[in-house]
DNA sequence: CTCCTTACGTACACTGTGCATGTAAGACTC
DNA sequence: GAGTCTTACATGCACAGTGTACGTAAGGAG
């Protein structure tokens, strides 16, 4: 008994995506079955497979949306910081930390994504979003082209682990401040 | 038809561990079945379950052994570097990069481990090994206690992503040199 | 109004985990 | 050194979960 208009179909796809985001964030990829997702979204597994192909495809869609949201925050913060490259780098980096630690992004993007999508695809997804901004910011700071790739990867890794470190503790603003302070220390290595 | 002496049992446990290490490194945790492991080790799944409890337990054993090996390299390099805290920090960090990128450790420890064991347990495993050494080295460098936790996590993350970056490229010594150079840049932020 | 396509629902096959049970060979006791 | 216990596996089965083939009804285009 399917009743499908173009709008209704888009809505069910959204509901599935929302439900999957919550469940993946709460329990992790492996502990969530597609039946769980379908039930939470009020449909059957058939609908999930129709819209997302397979379980990895659903996860990919979830991760891509979260990644895009984080990247939006980074861009907005950088815009707001003006034209000075160093100010933009700092603002974007701190915005990244705050954005990725608020909401369900950490577990999905930083714990499960590399294993589910593979490191390579995960890196590409990152490169299409916040990764590019970091790289551009470092280039604008005058980082040698030879070091650019490696330094981008390492600073990105530092921020990711900072986010995980914050999420692990989960006891208010103190650890968050420490993470931001440590990040400033590392950024100073690039721009004194 | 079991024929089990104490020595023979230890040997089969070893064979299973060796086979699992190779397979997990080559295909990833999810794509390896316990039947694959058992067949590669020349036993049945019963033996695997007997020694390691379940699939996660087997993976835990694999990861712990790899982690311990990496930590050994770090310690050895630090010892060899003498008494100067800065020299020990640098030597240990670069040794970490080289050790974790040589052999099957990268995929197991950095891609699958967080998802399979959970971020928390993975962090504890790391803390029991190379993580402690990094923290000690930073403390010896006079890093403020308030920053110690966050900075350790972020530098660790930077090194992990440096390792993944090296493993991703896999084209000889050039990328490796770039990674080491970028790492030096970050270490300079802690110790000028 | 007809036909085609989209959007699901349903049923089934297959893979893989984990556990329960069986069993034979050390190891230990006397 | 015979009996008993425990360890070290092998085997078989139950169950969960994925993916896919098929069925089906409701838009939408002509």
From TrEMBL, chains A, B:
**Native source organism of the sequence:** Myceligenerans salitolerans
Taxonomically, the superkingdom here is Bacteria
The record's section on InterPro entries has: Homeodomain-like_sf, HTH-type_TetR-like_transc_reg, HTH_TetR, Rv0078-like_C
Q: Which UniProt keywords apply?
A: DNA-binding, Transcription, Transcription regulation
| The name this protein goes by in its record | TetR family transcriptional regulator
Q: Which residues bind DNA?
A: 33-52
Task: Work out whether the entry's keyword set contains Acetylation.
Answer: no
Annotated HTH tetR-type domain ranges read 10-70
């Amino acid at each position: 008994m399917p009743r499908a208009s173009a709008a209704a179909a888009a809505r069910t796809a959204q509901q599935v995506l929302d439900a999957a985001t919550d469940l993946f964030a709460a329990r992790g990829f492996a502990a969530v079955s597609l039946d769980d997702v379908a039930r939470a979204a009020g449909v059957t597994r058939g609908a999930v497979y129709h819209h997302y192909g397979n379980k990895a495809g659903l996860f990919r869609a979830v991760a891509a949306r979260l990644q895009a949201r984080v990247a939006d925050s980074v861009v907005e913060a950088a815009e707001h910081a003006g034209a000075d490259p160093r100010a933009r780098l700092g603002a974007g980096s701190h915005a990244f930390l705050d954005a990725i630690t608020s909401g369900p992004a950490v577990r999905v993007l930083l714990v499960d994504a590399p294993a589910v999508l593979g490191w390579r695809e995960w890196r590409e997804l990152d490169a299409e979003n916040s990764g590019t901004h970091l790289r551009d910011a470092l280039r604008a700071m005058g980082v040698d082209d030879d070091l650019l790739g490696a330094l981008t990867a390492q600073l990105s890794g530092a921020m990711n682990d900072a986010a995980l470190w914050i999420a692990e503790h989960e006891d208010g603003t103190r650890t968050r401040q420490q993470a931001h302070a440590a990040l400033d220390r590392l950024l100073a290595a690039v721009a004194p």
